[in-house]
Design a protein that fits this description.
Oligomer: single chain
Organism: Amycolatopsis vastitatis
GO molecular function: carbohydrate derivative binding
CATH topology: Rossmann fold
CATH superfamily: Glucose-6-phosphate isomerase like protein, domain 1
Helix content: 40-55%
CATH architecture: 3-Layer(aba) Sandwich
Protein name: SIS domain-containing protein
Structural class: alpha/beta
Distance between the termini: 53 Å
Shape: globular
CATH class: Alpha Beta
Number of strands: 5
């Protein structure tokens, strides 16, 4: 058996990201416009996911360089660290979305971003349905190929519910290596973060050109970071309890 080259792995990941950027150019612009609408309306971007897609939710929240107007939707039973098998069962449980939205739900000025590679389980799909019923737009970050291949477990899919769909191009099963029969090296976490950063960069370029004051966090580990974040914490801490 040959030795795997780190250069080979890096090259395949780089190609995936390049393909994702090209395939989603129009969708990234549309997603950025939805986020800019939130900023103009002084509203919120709600973010959600289950299982390992919660890594993408963490990437959107209280992140250096990230938006402060983010409300993360979360239930501890969805996190594998709190019970791996149970987390899978939880995202398949119908009705959980409304429980999570009971404290605060997106409205017409808000946007919901849902990360789910398979895009078929009740929790992410019902979040989208509930948000759209309340008048909110939905950015679905998923894999069209994975959605098409996955067993249908709810009345709809993330692809069907997304106002805008960002396609990670992740193959069914998520693994990427070896290329001819993937069994390891899952890519969804890397690609989800990349897609979100593409949206943030588009928001920044267009927002600054428009003269918008973008609510962006600074790192608390650089000089002046805490001071720069103080006003954002004072403002959003009142409506985003996870910031307190």
């Amino acid at each position: 058996m040959g030795v795997v080259s780190a250069t080979d792995i890096a090259g395949s990941v780089a190609k995936q990201l390049a393909d994702v950027e090209q395939a989603n150019a129009e969708a990234v612009r549309a997603a950025a416009e939805l986020v800019l609408g939130v900023i103009r309306a002084d509203a919120l971007v709600y973010t959600a996911g289950a299982g390992h897609s919660l890594a993408a939710v963490a990437e959107t929240f209280y992140r250096a360089g990230g938006l402060a107007c983010v409300y993360p939707l979360y239930h501890p039973e969805l996190l594998p660290l709190h019970g791996a098998v149970h987390s899978t069962k939880t995202e398949r449980r119908s009705g959980l979305a409304e429980e999570v939205l009971a404290e605060r739900a997106p409205g017409p000025d808000d946007v919901l971003v849902v990360f789910s590679t398979s895009g078929v389980n009740p929790y992410p799909v019902e979040l989208c349905i509930a948000a759209r019923e309340r008048g909110a737009a939905v950015i679905a970050v998923t894999s069209r190929a994975s959605v098409a291949a996955a067993p249908r477990r709810s009345s709809s899919t993330l692809v069907e519910q997304g106002t805008v769909v960002l396609d990670s191009l992740v193959v069914p099963g998520d693994a990427s290596y070896p290329p001819d029969a993937p069994r390891t090296a899952p890519l969804s976490t890397v690609v989800n973060a990349f897609l979100w950063n593409l949206v943030l960069a588009e928001v920044y370029d267009r927002g600054t050109a428009e003269g918008l004051e973008l609510p962006l966090w600074r790192s608390s580990n650089v000089v002046g970071g805490d001071e720069a974040n103080a006003a954002l914490l004072a403002k959003y801490g009142e409506i985003v309890p996870q910031l307190r």
